Amino acid sequence: MIRSALVVAVLLAGCAESVSPEPLGDYTAWKRLDVIGEAPGHGDTYRIIYANDIASDPASTLYHGYPEGSVIVKEIYENDGDRPGALKYVAIMRRLGVVTTALVDQGGWLFSQSSKPNGAETHTDRCWDRCHVAAPFNGAWYDYRK
User: Fold this and answer.
1) β-bridge pairing 84-95 and 31-39
2) Would you tell me how many other CB atoms lie within 10 Å of the CB of residue 125?
3) Dihedral pair phi/psi, residue 42, rounded to 5°
């Protein structure tokens, strides 16, 4: 079991590619949502989710998903008794363009991850393929606007 998990981890890491998008800056000043418990792709973790002004505006094209310029940052922590434990990684979603056809081009998002806040970022397709493709707002959930 451990060996197969290690093989999968190595294969997934091998598929990652470095990306250099616009820096996030102090995203901790953005709207914040804390979420605890099981989530596909994240397991039983404590997640602190930040959304910039564009992504957190409920009036912005509610029926068409998140507009271009939306940025959502998820700090994923170990769940330490419903409190944040050790940081596992930071997941970042940037809406880069308008998507006219559903389920293509990763819903118009650039999904990336970093091992620390504002650290070097890598991209893989697995965020989209394994989870976000099922989200009702072109790759995201409405929760980020609450």
Assistant:
1) unpaired
2) 14
3) -120, -15
Tokens of 134: 């099922």
Among left, alpha and beta (phi > 0; psi -120 to 50; other), residue 15 is: alpha
Q: What's the token pair of residue 116?
A: 């620390």
Alpha-carbon gap, residue 56 to 46, rounded angstroms:
20
How many C-beta neighbours within 10 Å does residue 133 have?
Answer: 15
pLDDT digits (tens, 9 = 90+) for 1-57: 343 333 334 334 446 788 878 889 999 999 999 999 888 778 899 999 999 998 888
- Cα 18 from Cα 25, distance rounded (Å): 19
Exposed / middle / buried, residue 54 (Cβ in 10 Å: 0-12, 13-18, 19+) = middle
Q: Which residues contact 142 (CB under 8 A, 6 or more apart)?
A: 136
